[in-house]
């Protein structure tokens, strides 16, 4: 289903040998103290392990391992539901545990436990169904032996094996109390041994999330809540730019401050260690570090650099690396009746995850322990081991809930810092960044300049399309230097979304990445490239529709034969009353987007309509209503899908309207939430989401709401004012500047 | 030494009076439901009640609340989970990452204590200082309205 070569673009390169090594000696059924997820008592019962994912106790409690970090996406419910469906489990008897870090739980594409790109569900879809079906088969076989009947005469009802002929029934717990695990586990053929969708009892129905109760009463444990006997507290001042570190500091003075245990100088920053966090925070404010300079990052000036990016976008001699192409775009553009060229810009964005980066590490002994909430637990074992000069099998990671992931917790540098500091001071260390340090040393969504040229025929149809995206590659910094080169310069994080896989009527298109020198701390950020590439593409489509004097919805429909694409377009038109007169002072804008680098083979689709007004005095855009239709294949847990859409829409509107990091001479200019503003409750529109389930398998959910948000707003702004906003965020200053321009752009 | 009454329990802590209440609650008392988000009263993740009023504990010196009645998420209801807002939070499936939700619930609880039937406008105005980066705002509003109705 997933193209192997495409999959490898995403693959987290773990050496197979190292990774297998990481498994040795790990206790198998280590239970994480995720309050509220497991009922107390159930944990202490004897459990009969049927396979890596399923254990059943004699009382009938079914424990299902969830292999992926829970960061709000609902994965701790969604994945176990898949197992429970094939097992035919009574969901009320299911207890979910965060699985240990072990190769048996590795994501099939990443070959590691790692959560990015919204592909957990699709990746684990078949292995988990097989695990559930296999456990069910073990129970059936045991019941068949016990009753001396052929297994073919047996069926299941939730948590019960039934022999209809004799009217006998056995609960799963009863079977678990006498059954011995078979010497050889039954083989399950995914092609014929799995349940047909028509028989689903759980999938496709909304199931409350297992982590919600603990997150409503303060019991949920995040990395920052870890407490280890004898631990000291630390915070870390990281060098302001990539590759820099302390040249000198007032460490000696800081060491003498009350409550301070030590000051640890590392190659890339300075840690202040103390008996409590208050002492550490106070000392941090007095810490003065002279950083090594002369590094490329020292010259970053975002306002100036974006102009340089734009020049590179225009400079035809700068050829980029082709990301995706269909047909012959250059030839089609050369032969077009008209070529429309437009440029779009986007600024740096900060994750602003609510839980500041932190980790607790005990690196005193040969057996290292880590308490953290991370998207990358396997990588944590590898990178911590490397930093400490040990092997991954000596590093045990206790996975916690994540107070926001969004890509920020896909890298593990804070955990490595904590490990190095723990080793230096000879104590367990809880390292917590202040919000200021979290932002100053943040990893950001890359800044971009984009230039799209669309060739139109005499009837305004798009015959050719060229999309140039200028910016720093991201994957080298996220993974390791040289990663991009190995991936043949194709940077999936940066370029995602720069494609038209569902606009099937556009026969010739091409997108390319014009690479700037690497010097910014860049990251995967919810929505990855599609947050800005779809802003450009869907703004451009709208510009062409207006040029053609065509309704923007009708124009989009004219571009696609794809039934699913047409369905999300038509659905949102119906939901929003597209084409009807709006109240005075507001206007609608529409945008379509797919999410998923395997599209159109495997892709999630959405169309959004935003209704906005603008304050002519301040330039402030207000989004009043927002409608979205979303199709992520088979909707496993529809309400959780809806919640993810709502979340990603708010995220998408934040980057559309406000979010912006600026850097001057290498230094981040924002320090906390008063300067890096995210959306607040008063700025959030009424959001209505329609979940359209399609097909037999699930696709990507967590980021699908992001890409359509900015273009929907920008397109509404044009309809309302006749002005185009082409620089994200569409903040009041930019809107006001556009409103004050004397000429109104031709709508014709 | 500071004497604190948290969730009905009076305790003397060996902390300086200028230490923010947040750290006394989390690190001295081990009540980790109250969260650190910004350290500057910008985000509301650290919201607790002092004499029933919502307070940003990250900027409140512990010395200023000595002897006052402090309530954290753990003490909001007798069994820690049955406040109408907590039930509504579950019914509406509000939390995602969940990190800000203790603060959201404490902020909302102070509103409902003062105004049993707030309008949507009053809810938004009262809650606007609490950031939810997962963007669960739509459900937070719904849950507050539900709690007001069912409370």
Please, what is the CATH homologous superfamily of the largest domain in chain B? Beta-grasp domain
Oligomer: heterodimer
Q: Quick check: average pLDDT of chain A?
A: 93
Relevant CATH superfamily of the largest domain in chain A: Aldehyde oxidase/xanthine dehydrogenase, molybdopterin binding domain
Helix/strand structural class of chain A? alpha+beta
Total DSSP helices of chain B: 5
Main beta sheet strand tally, sense and closure of chain B: 5 strands, mixed
What Rg of chain B, in angstroms, do the CA atoms define? 15 Å
Please state the structural category of chain B.
alpha+beta
Largest sheet: spatial strand order of chain B:
2-1-5-3-4
Please name the CATH topology of the largest domain in chain B.
Answer: Ubiquitin-like (UB roll)
Strand order of the largest sheet of chain A: 10-11-8-19-16-17-18
Q: How many separate structural domains of chain A?
A: 3
Q: What's the CATH topology label of the largest domain in chain A? A: Aldehyde Oxidoreductase, domain 4
Q: Report the radius of gyration of chain A as a whole number of Å.
A: 27 Å
Spans of at least 5 consecutive residues with low confidence of chain A: 1-42
What fraction strand of chain B?
Answer: 5-15%
How many helices of chain A? The count is 21
Mean pLDDT reading of chain B: 97
Describe the model.
The complex is a heterodimer of chains A (748) and B (151). With 748 residues, chain A is α+β, with helices and mostly antiparallel strands. Chain A has three domains: 196 residues, Aldehyde oxidase/xanthine dehydrogenase, molybdopterin binding domain (Aldehyde Oxidoreductase, domain 4); 147 residues, Aldehyde Oxidoreductase, domain 4; 327 residues, Aldehyde Oxidoreductase, domain 4, CATH 3.30.365. Chain A has 21 helices and 30 strands. In chain A, a hairpin with a 6-residue loop joins β25 and β26. By secondary structure, chain B is α+β, with helices and mostly antiparallel strands. Chain B folds into two domains: 74 residues, Beta-grasp domain (Ubiquitin-like (UB roll), Roll); 67 residues, [2Fe-2S]-binding domain (DNA polymerase, domain 1), CATH 1.10.150. The longest helix of chain B has 14 residues. Chain B starts with a strand and ends with a helix. Classes of the chains: A alpha+beta (748), B alpha+beta (151). Chains A and B meet through α7 and α19 of A and α1, α2, α3, α4 and α5 of B.
């Amino acid at each position: 289903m997933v193209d192997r070569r495409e999959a490898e673009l995403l693959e987290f390169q773990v050496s197979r040998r190292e990774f297998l090594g990481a498994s040795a000696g790990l206790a198998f059924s280590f239970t994480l103290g995720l309050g509220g997820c497991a009922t107390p008592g159930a944990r202490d019962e004897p459990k009969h392990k049927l396979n890596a994912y399923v254990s059943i106790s004699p009382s009938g409690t079914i424990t299902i391992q969830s292999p992926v970090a829970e960061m709000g996406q609902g994965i701790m419910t969604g994945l176990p539901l898949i197992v429970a469906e094939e097992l035919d489990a009574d969901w009320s008897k299911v207890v979910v545990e965060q699985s240990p870090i072990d190769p048996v739980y590795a994501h099939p594409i990443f070959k590691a436990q790692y959560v990015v790109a919204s592909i957990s569900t699709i990746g684990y879809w078949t292995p988990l169904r097989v695990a559930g079906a296999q456990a069910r088969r073990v129970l059936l076989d045991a019941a068949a032996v016990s009753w001396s009947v052929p297994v073919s005469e047996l069926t299941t009802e939730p948590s019960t094996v039934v022999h209809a002929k004799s009217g006998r029934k056995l609960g799963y717990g009863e079977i678990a109390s006498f059954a011995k695990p078979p010497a050889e586990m039954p083989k399950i053929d995914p092609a014929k041994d799995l349940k047909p969708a028509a028989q689903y009892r759980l999938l496709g129905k909304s199931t409350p999330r297992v982590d919600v109760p603990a997150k409503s009463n303060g019991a949920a444990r995040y990395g920052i809540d870890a407490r280890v006997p004898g631990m000291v507290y630390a915070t870390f001042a990281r060098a302001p730019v990539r590759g820099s570190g302390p040249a000198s500091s007032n460490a000696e003075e800081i060491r003498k401050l009350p409550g301070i245990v030590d000051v640890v100088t590392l190659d890339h920053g300075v840690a202040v260690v103390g008996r409590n966090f208050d002492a550490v925070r106070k000392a941090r404010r007095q810490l003065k570090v002279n950083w090594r300079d002369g590094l490329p990052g020292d010259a970053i000036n975002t306002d100036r650099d974006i102009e340089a990016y734009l020049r590179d976008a225009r400079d035809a001699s700068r050829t980029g690396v082709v990301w995706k192409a269909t047909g012959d775009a250059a030839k089609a553009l050369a032969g077009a009746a008209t070529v429309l060229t437009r440029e779009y810009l986007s600024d740096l964005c900060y994750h602003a995850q609510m839980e500041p980066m932190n980790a607790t590490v005990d690196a005193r002994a040969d057996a290292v322990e880590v308490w953290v909430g991370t998207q990358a637990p396997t990588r944590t074992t590898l990178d911590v081991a490397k930093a400490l000069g040990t092997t991954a099998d000596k590093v045990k990671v206790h996975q916690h809930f994540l107070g926001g992931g969004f890509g920020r917790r896909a890298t593990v540098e804070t955990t490595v810092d904590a490990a190095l500091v723990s080793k230096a001071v000879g104590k367990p260390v809880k390292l917590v960044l202040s919000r200021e340090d979290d932002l100053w040393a943040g990893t950001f969504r890359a800044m971009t300049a984009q230039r799209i040229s669309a060739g139109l025929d005499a009837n305004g149809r798009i015959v050719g399309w060229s999309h140039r995206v200028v910016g720093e590659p991201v994957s080298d910094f996220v993974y390791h230097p040289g990663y991009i080169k190995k991936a043949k310069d194709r940077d999936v994080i940066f370029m995602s979304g720069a494609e038209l896989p569902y606009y099937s009527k556009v026969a010739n298109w091409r997108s390319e990445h014009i690479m700037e020198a690497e010097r910014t701390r860049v990251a995967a950020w919810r929505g990855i490239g599609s947050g800005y590439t779809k802003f450009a593409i869907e703004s451009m489509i709208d510009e062409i529709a207006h040029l053609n004097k065509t309704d923007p919805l009708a124009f989009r429909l004219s571009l696609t034969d794809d039934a699913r694409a047409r369905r999300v377009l038509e659905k949102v038109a119906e939901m929003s009353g597209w084409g009807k007169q709006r109240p005075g002072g507001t206007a609608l804008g529409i945008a379509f987007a797919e999410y998923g680098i395997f599209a159109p083979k495997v892709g999630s689709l959405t169309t959004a309509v935003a209704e906005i007004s603008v304050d002519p005095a301040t330039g402030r855009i207000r989004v009043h209503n927002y409608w979205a239709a979303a199709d992520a294949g088979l909707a496993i847990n529809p309400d959780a899908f809806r919640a993810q859409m709502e979340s990603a829409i708010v995220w998408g509107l934040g980057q559309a309207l406000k979010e912006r990091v600026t850097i001057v001479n290498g230094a981040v200019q924002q320090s906390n939430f008063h300067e890096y503003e995210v959306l607040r409750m008063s700025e959030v529109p009424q959001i209505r989401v329609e979940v359209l389930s399609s097909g037999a398998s699930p696709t990507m959910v967590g980021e699908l709401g992001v890409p359509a948000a900015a273009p929907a707003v920008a397109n509404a702004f044009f309809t309302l004012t006749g002005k185009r906003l082409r620089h994200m965020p569409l903040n009041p200053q930019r809107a006001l500047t556009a409103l004050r321009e004397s000429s109104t752009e031709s709508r014709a | 030494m500071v004497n604190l009454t948290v969730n009905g329990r009076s305790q003397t802590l060996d902390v300086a009076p200028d230490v923010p209440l947040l750290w006394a609650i989390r690190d001295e008392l081990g009540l980790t439901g109250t969260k650190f988000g910004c350290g500057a009263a910008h985000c509301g993740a650290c919201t607790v009640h002092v004499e029933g009023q919502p307070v940003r504990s990250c900027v409140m010196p512990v010395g200023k609340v000595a002897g006052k009645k402090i309530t954290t998420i753990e003490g909001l209801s007798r069994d820690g989970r049955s406040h109408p807002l907590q039930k509504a939070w579950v019914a509406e499936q509000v939390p995602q990452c969940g990190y800000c939700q203790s603060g959201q619930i404490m902020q909302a609880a102070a509103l409902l204590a003062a105004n049993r039937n707030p309008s949507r406008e009053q809810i938004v105005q009262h809650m606007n200082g609490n950031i939810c980066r997962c963007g669960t705002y739509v459900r937070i509003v719904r849950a507050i309205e539900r709690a007001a109705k069912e409370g």
